[in-house]
C-alpha cells in the first residue's frame, strides 16, 4: 500500500482535473471517491509494456467518472419522466387520503354526485384501479373515466374555494 500512497500523491490531480473539466459539483465527494477507486484499480491492473501509467490512469478515471455522470443523467431522466406522467390529482389525493379532515370530506361528498363520490372514495382514497372499479360497479371503463373527469373538475373548484393550492 505504500506504493499506492506515492501513486496517489503524484496522480491525485488527475481526479481533480477531470472533476473540474466536466463541471461536476461534488458536494458529497462521490465523484472524488470513485476517482480514487478508479486510480487504485488502474494502479493494480497497469501493464508498463502498453503505455505510460499517467495516460492509463487518466483514461480509467475518466471512464468511471463519465459512467457515473451518465448513470446520474439516466436516473434524472426517469425521475422527470415519472413527474411528467403523474397528475396533480394523484399527488394531491395521496396527501388528502391521510390528512383530510372530516369537515372537508363532508364538503366534498356534498359537492359530488353519488357516482362521483363512489369514484372519489374507491379510486382516489383507497387506490382502486379504474378498470377494477368499473367492473365492480358494472360500468364501462369510459363511463368511470368520464365520471372521474367531472368529479376532478368539481374537486378543483371546491379545493380552490377552500384555499388549497393546486
From TrEMBL:
Enumerate the GO terms in the molecular function aspect: DNA-binding transcription factor activity
- Domain RNA polymerase sigma-70 region spans what residues? 9-74
Query: What is one GO biological process annotated to this record?
Result: DNA-templated transcription initiation
- Looking at the record's lineage, which domain of life comes first? Bacteria
Matching entries from Pfam families are given as: Sigma70_r2 (PF04542)
Name of the molecule in the record: Sigma-70 family RNA polymerase sigma factor
Q: What is the lineage of its organism?
A: Bacteria, Bacillati, Bacillota, Bacilli, Bacillales
Amino acid at each position: 500500500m505504500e506504493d499506492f500512497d506515492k501513486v496517489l500523491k503524484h496522480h491525485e490531480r488527475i481526479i481533480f482535473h477531470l472533476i473540474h473539466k466536466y463541471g461536476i459539483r461534488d458536494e458529497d465527494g462521490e465523484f472524488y471517491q470513485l476517482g480514487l477507486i478508479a486510480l487504485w484499480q488502474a494502479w493494480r491492473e497497469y501493464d508498463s509494456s502498453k503505455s505510460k501509467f499517467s495516460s492509463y490512469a487518466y483514461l480509467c478515471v475518466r471512464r468511471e467518472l463519465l459512467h457515473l455522470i451518465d448513470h446520474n443523467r439516466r436516473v434524472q431522466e426517469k425521475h422527470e419522466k415519472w413527474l411528467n406522467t403523474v397528475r396533480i390529482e394523484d399527488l394531491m389525493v395521496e396527501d388528502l387520503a391521510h390528512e383530510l379532515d372530516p369537515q372537508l370530506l363532508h364538503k366534498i361528498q356534498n359537492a359530488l354526485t353519488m357516482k362521483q363520490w363512489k369514484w372519489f372514495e374507491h379510486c382516489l382514497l383507497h387506490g382502486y384501479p379504474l378498470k377494477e372499479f368499473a367492473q365492480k360497479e358494472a360500468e364501462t371503463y369510459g363511463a368511470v373515466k368520464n365520471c372521474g373527469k367531472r368529479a376532478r373538475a368539481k374537486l378543483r373548484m371546491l379545493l380552490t374555494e377552500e384555499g388549497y393550492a393546486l
